[in-house]
Amino acid sequence: MILIYSVIIVIAFTFFGMVVIENYRNIIIRNEEIRLFQTANIVADTYRTNMEDIILINTMVKSYGKQANARILILDSHKMVIVDSFNTYIDETIDNEEIRSALEGKSNSGTYILEGRNVLQLSVPIVNDVGGRKRVDGAVLISASLEEEFSDIKNLQNMLIKVSILSLSIALIFTIIAVNSLTKPLRSLNYAVEKLSSGELGYKVQKRESGEIGKLIDSFNEMSGKLKKIENNRKSFINSISHELKTPLTSIRALIDSLTIGESGIEVYKEYLEDIKEETIRMGQLVNYLLNSIKLEDINLDIKDEDLKDIVEDTVKLVRPYAEKNGVSIIINKIESVNIKCDRNKIKEVLMNLFDNAVKYRDPDKKQNYISVSIERNRKEAKLVMEDNGLGIKGDDMSDIFNRGFRVFDSCIRMDSDKEGYGIGLSIVKNIIEKHGWKISAESTYGIGSKFIIRIPM
Ligand code: ADP
């Protein structure tokens, strides 16, 4: 990237430098030409009017030559030198482009390199009026060195190169600083992604930027936090399942050990085998529970016309003894008949799960624990509300309670043996409700109680 920027800057500077120098060179040559053409015209005019006075002409040519810092020659129409400000070419014939065109009546100029020096050479014709006709009688040729001007150009060129190198260095330094500060948060994010993929879930990137990059960092940190939570839930889920399976296995092994050591009578064998059977039934139930939760996506609902009030009352009849045994009373509040289409057994399973949770997470510090159930309906929907005054759920955990495998990591909840679970109940509830095309939501205040609301569109 930086290389591309540098190449672009170098090309731009070189191009700009070349244009500036070329223009400067043209202007200098043009100015020199104008100055020398003026001198050549004056010499041609003076010669034309004083042709006979060769001494005057010689003096004039030398004086102008000195003034213009140039060599001035006057040639006749046969290209023979009549006057030379340097006196070396007198009576010699010179033939070049400028002389030929001057003798044809046209002024001309050109730049040459003669003996390694840059020279500007120009000519003007000496024109006389003979009987109303113009006649070219000779030419004035001026040649001047351009070395001084060209050394100015060289100086400018050197200065431009120095300025270019300095600007390029400054531009490069700024580019490197800009690129570095732009890519820094991206590099931190890349590092964090590597950390995450190497298993360090929950790794967070320090946010110093606002705007889009800041938002990206926020989303990344949120994702990383969620992944950690999911991983913790998964571990705890596997932990509790393994624990649940290990307990019956240990008792089965202990029972078999005692049977193989002693020589007990058939009655003892029968009793032990009965215990073993019970343990295997417990394990079977656990496995079924797991299978149900995992295969829930595949279930087919047995939809029939039902009365919601009837299903609620039926379920309450079943759970009331268990609730009351645990000191929780069930209050049926404002209940009315609502005809709905549903799978009766699955909805009963939902209600059982909600009642079971409300009993399980009751608050022992409260004088009276209760669960209140109500059914309300309007033209748009029917609302089944189940409210308890149990332990409540902390705000942070609310967004996860319907996720499979999530359990609240509260030490007081986990230590209590009758609050054992796998964090599956509410995920099953949500699944069944959504399979019916209904909605479930929860509200809770830690220490006050929880409320589960099922909305059935009418
Ligand atoms: P489990 O009960 O097996 O842990 P659930 O999916 O039924 O799993 O519930 C998830 C979590 O939500 C529970 O661990 C519990 O902390 C919390 N929870 C559910 N219902 C209630 C309730 N009525 N009162 C307080 N906490 C609840």
Number of helical segments with 4 or more residues:
11
Give the low-confidence spans: none
Strand order of the largest sheet: 2-1-5-4-3
Kindly report how far apart the N and C termini lie: 62 Å
Task: Sum up the overall morphology in one term.
Answer: rod-shaped
CATH architectural arrangement of the largest domain: 2-Layer Sandwich
Mean pLDDT: 88
Question: Would you list the SSEs in sequence order as H and E?
Answer: HHEEHEEEHHHEHEEHEEHHHEE
CATH fold-type name of the largest domain: Beta-Lactamase
The helicity comes to 55-70%
**Fourth-tier CATH superfamily name of the largest domain:** PAS domain
Oligomer: single chain
Number of strands: 12
Instruction: Catalogue the ligands.
Output: adenosine-5'-diphosphate
Radius of gyration: 53 Å
Task: Write structural notes for this entry.
It is a single chain. The chain has 458 residues and is of the alpha+beta class. The protein folds into three domains: 1-231, Beta-Lactamase; 232-297, Orthogonal Bundle (Helix Hairpins), CATH 1.10.287; 300-457, Heat Shock Protein 90 (2-Layer Sandwich), CATH 3.30.565. Helices cover 56% and strands 20% of the residues. It is built from eleven helices and twelve strands. The strands form three sheets. The protein has a five-stranded antiparallel β-sheet with strand order 2-1-5-4-3, sandwiched between helices. A hairpin with a 4-residue loop joins strand 1 (71-76) and strand 2 (81-84). Helix 1 (2-49) runs antiparallel to helix 2 (54-68), helix 5 packs antiparallel against helix 6 (266-295) and helix 7 (308-325) packs parallel to helix 8. The longest helix has 51 residues, at 147-197. It starts with a helix and ends with a strand. The chain binds adenosine-5'-diphosphate (ADP). Adenosine-5'-diphosphate binds at residues 357-358, 361, 388, 390-393, 401, 406-408, 413, 421-427, 450.
